[in-house]
Specification:
By secondary structure, the chain is α/β, with parallel strands linked by helices. The protein has helices at about 45, 55-70, 90-110, 120-130, 170-180, 185-195, 220-230, 235-260, 275-285, 295-300, 305-315, and strands at about 5-10, 15-25, 30-40, 80-90, 115, 135-140, 145-155, 155-160, 265-270, 290-295. Bound molecules: 5'-O-[(R)-(carboxyoxy)(hydroxy)phosphoryl]adenosine and zinc ion.
Length: about 325
C-alpha cells in the first residue's frame, strides 16, 4: 500500500468539530480514497449557550482529539507519509490544540507536518468526493465565510467576492437564536421553512444586481429581526429568509460568471448541506447549461478528510510545504 499511495492523517479543530481522517492518494494517478473520517461534534457542549464558546471548544478538543485520532488510524502509523492540521482561519485555542498535536505526531514519526488552510479544505472537497476537475467557480458558504472564488488550479485561487459583514451561515444561526431555536441554526431554519410561505416577506437583497461579487447580510439580519418582533411567524420568516438568501447567492454568482465564465459551479461549506439551496443552485446551473457539483452533505460541514486531502495533494503535486508563520486570520489567498 505504502509504495503506491500517499497515506495522510488530517486533523481539524478550527471550530466545534474535533475531527481526524486518513486519506490515501495514488502516487501516479492521484486517485483518492477516504480510509477513515471521524467527526466528533461538540454541539451538545455549546447548545446551552446558543453558540460556540471558544474556550470550551479548545478544552474539548484537548480532551477528545487523542481518542478521535486513535479511531481514525485505520492504518499503522508507521505507514503515514505526512500529518496535516488546520492552521486557520478559526478559533485560536482549537487551532493550537490541533497544530501542536499534529506537529508532535509528525515529529515523533519523522514525517512532514503540512499546515492546511481550512477554506482550501472546503474549496477542494468536491474534487475529493465528486472527482471535479479544475478550473471551476466556487461558492463557499459556511458559518465563518461567504466567498466566491475562481479556482484555477491547485494552489491557484482568486477570491472574486466576500461578505463585508455577516456570513451566510450566521444568517441561519442568528435567525434561529432569535426564535429560541438551538445552535446550529441552519438545519432548524431549513426544517421550519418546509412549512412556511417563502413569499410571505419581501426581505431586502443587499448589493442586488451590483456589478461586483461581494455580499452583505447585516441589513437582511435587521429586517428579519423586525419582522419577527412584529409578526412572530417563524415558518414564513424561515422560508422567506431562505428564499432571499438563495436569490442573493444566485445574483452574486451571475455577476461572478462575468469575471470567471466557468462551465462548472461547485458549492462548499456547512450551508451547502441545505437541500433548498442545493436545489436552487442546481436549477440556476441547469438554466445556464453549467455543471453543478456539491459534496455529500456530511462532507459540506467541517471534517478532517478535506484537510487530509489538501495535505495529500500537496505531496502529490510536490508543492513546496509552506512553513507555518503565524496563524492566518485572512481568507483564502488571492492569486494575483
Ligand atoms: O462549514 P461549517 O461546518 O463551519 C465553518 O467553517 O463555519 O459551517 C457551519 C455553518 C453553520 O452556520 C450552520 O448553521 C450552517 O453551516 N449549516 C446550515 C445547514 N447545516 C449547517 N445552514 C443552512 N442549512 C443547513 N441544513
Ligand atoms: Zn468550515
Amino acid at each position: 500500500m505504502r509504495s503506491e499511495n500517499y497515506l495522510v492523517l488530517g486533523i481539524e479543530t478550527s471550530c466545534d468539530e474535533t475531527a481526524a481522517s486518513v486519506v490515501s492518494i495514488h502516487k501516479k494517478t492521484g486517485q483518492t480514497k477516504i480510509l477513515s473520517n471521524i467527526v466528533y461534534s461538540q454541539i451538545e457542549e455549546h447548545k446551552p449557550y446558543g453558540g460556540v464558546i471558544p474556550e470550551f471548544a479548545a478544552r474539548a478538543h484537548l480532551d477528545i482529539l487523542p481518542k478521535v485520532v486513535e479511531q481514525a488510524l485505520v492504518v499503522d502509523k508507521s505507514e503515514l507519509d505526512a500529518v496535516c492540521a488546520t492552521t486557520g482561519p478559526g478559533l485560536i485555542g482549537g487551532l493550537h490544540v490541533g497544530v501542536c498535536f499534529g506537529k508532535s505526531f509528525a515529529k515523533a514519526l519523522n514525517i512532514p507536518f503540512i499546515p492546511v488552510n481550512h477554506l482550501e479544505g472546503h474549496a477542494l472537497t468536491a474534487c475529493l468526493t465528486n472527482d471535479v476537475q479544475f478550473p471551476f467557480l466556487l461558492l463557499l458558504i459556511s458559518g465563518g465565510h461567504t466567498q466566491i472564488i475562481n479556482v484555477k488550479n491547485f494552489k491557484d485561487y482568486e477570491v472574486l467576492g466576500s461578505s463585508k459583514d455577516d456570513s451566510c451561515g450566521e444568517m441561519f444561526d442568528k435567525t434561529a437564536k432569535l426564535m429560541g431555536l438551538p445552535y446550529p441554526g441552519g438545519p432548524e431554519i431549513e426544517k421550519l421553512a418546509r412549512q412556511g410561505n417563502e413569499n410571505a416577506f419581501d426581505f431586502p437583497k443587499p448589493f442586488y444586481k451590483k456589478p461586483h461579487c461581494d455580499f452583505s447580510f447585516s441589513g437582511l439580519k435587521t429586517a428579519v429581526k423586525l419582522a419577527y418582533k412584529k409578526t412572530q411567524h417563524p415558518h414564513d420568516i424561515a422560508a422567506s429568509l431562505q428564499k432571499t438568501i438563495l436569490d442573493v447567492l444566485v445574483d452574486r454568482l451571475t455577476q461572478a460568471l462575468k469575471f470567471a465564465p466557468h462551465k462548472t459551479l461547485v458549492v462548499a461549506g456547512g450551508v451547502a448541506s441545505n437541500q433548498y439551496i442545493r436545489e436552487g443552485l442546481q436549477k440556476f446551473c441547469d438554466n445556464l447549461n453549467m455543471a453543478f457539483e456539491a459534496p455529500p452533505s456530511k462532507l459540506c460541514t467541517d471534517n478532517a478528510a478535506m484537510i487530509a486531502y489538501v495535505g495529500g495533494m500537496t505531496l502529490y503535486h510536490q508543492t513546496e510545504i509552506q512553513e507555518m508563520k503565524t496563524m492566518p486570520r485572512i481568507s483564502l489567498g488571492v492569486s494575483s
